[in-house]
Amino acid sequence: MAPAPSTEEPADGAKMSDYDRAMALIDDERYAEAVPLLQAVVKRAPKNADAWSQLGFASRKSGNWKEGEGFYAKALALDPNHQEAMEYLGELYLETGRPEQAAALLARLVKLCPDGCEARSELEEAIEEHARSRK
Q: Given pLDDT bands bounded at 50, 70 and 90, which one contains residue 15?
């Protein structure tokens, strides 16, 4: 008789999806390690706007702003109202000296979530911090 299958998750995360593993790496600020996992996810699921947005985030945090910008654009092409992609792209615009474009994305977020949302709050805070650092 075969042993009963274990219901416990393996300690090494072998059962975790590439997306989940990438998110865990991002949480640990191991962005460059998350990139290939997210690339595998978008290859398998090219219409996954969340994965494209996270790929943009991991790329940007790894210092690859141009690639990150392209991945955010892909996420927004798939879902024009993807709040997280707008927030992250706005932050990239601030990091690359384009505060006007960040402000335009914030205006879109204000329309999308007039009562507030996390993406709007985060981008507002980033824009305020950017303005303070310029004084």
A: low
